[in-house]
Amino acid sequence: MDSFNYSNGRLFAEGVDVETIAAEVGTPVYIYSKATFLDHLRKIQTAYAELDTTVCYSIKACGNINILRILAEAGSGFDIVSGGELFRARQAGADTRKIVYAGTGKTDTEIIDALNAPIGYFNIESEEELENLIRLAKQTGKKAKAALRVNPDIDPGTHRHITTGTRETKFGVDIERARKVFADYGNNGAVDLCAIHVHLGSGGKTITPYVEAVRKILPVIDTLREGGHTIEALDLGGGYGADYESDTVPSAADYAAGIVPILKDKNLKLILEPGKAIVANAGILLTRTLYTKTGGDKKFVIVDAGMNDLIRPSLYEAFHFIWPAAVQSAFVPPRRSKDPALDGTQTVDVVGPICEGADFFAKDRPLPPVKRGDLIVVFTAGAYGFTMASNYNARPMPAEVLVDGDTWKVIRKRQTYEDLIMHER
Ligand SMILES: *Cc1c(COP(=O)(O)O)cnc(C)c1O
Q1: How far is the CA of 284 from the centre of ligand 1 (A)?
Q2: Does the domain made of 34-279 have the CATH classification 3.20.20.10?
Q3: Domain 4-32+281-424, what fold?
Q4: Against a cut of 0.85, is the pTM above it?
């Protein structure tokens, strides 16, 4: 479910006409729906309620502290990958014990901050990192729990840049090595190595890789337990699908239907780290048409957002459904897809103003006729949208707006030109 719907040919975010936001805040602007991300969080919490489950929302998907605060109040923990994200989580009032910390390159400063918090689990990516954590825990006199990130060697069949669970990635250790890590470091007196972490990567469109991962990991846990190690938790990571196209990915209930039965009675706490499944379609990027033009046989719609605002299409060839914010009734899209199959559309490239061939949002896409000044909506832009935005081409970063029912507020001001040079001396 999401709360971006057309009514009388105009797009509403919950109860707010997005045009009013554009008129007051300008474009490009990210607009988020509170009801949508709460709905997604609750659906996940409910789907896994049979197990002792902690949902740790992955901050890197969308990290505005207002959003984190709402999720924290709804019982979410957080998955962090940096000291900066730990800072964000604390600013948002997170329960630090519900924080899990992954990342291949944690610095000493970041580790000490997390030891002091203290967080729930350090997700360990290598032997050297574990040695360093043990050293710092002893030095500071802090206790810590750790989960070993194990690579089940499963390819969820997504883009090569977002596949992380195969053997030859920089993440985690493979299954054979996991046993040795527990043998070598299981009893170190400072860090309680008591959990397994798996993260397959992002974007798989079936539940199969997850079920397969659990089936491959459970025997490892059995062996470790037989060897005298306490394994209290399994962290299944993130990567659960989001509806970039209508009804193309499993729901939280679908994933749970495959995963919960095999984890029942295993005496394991379950941790989940969804990112985009919670926020992707809780956000849109609203942008305005600057110009239309033709080049050869191609038609271009040039908008005021660029790859610095939303880089997913350039970086991952990611699909985002794109449609004008105001349309005649014939053009209200029945569903979000690459080809909405409506008469009277024209095929266009939607591109930004940046001096890069990669600066595009869509290629060869059917769109209703669009003219200069029209608002264009890039849907399902809540995840890895604003968090990956940059100042490339000296473009101020866009504003972020949060809608709640009939009300809305700016939760991040648009940057100014002064902001661009603020730290320069
Ligand atoms: C990025 C990341 C996630 C979230 O991934 P999504 O695809 O947004 O669900 C979860 N866990 C870890 C370790 C990650 O790096």
Answers
A1: 20
A2: yes
A3: Lyase, Ornithine Decarboxylase; Chain A, domain 1 (2.40.37)
A4: yes
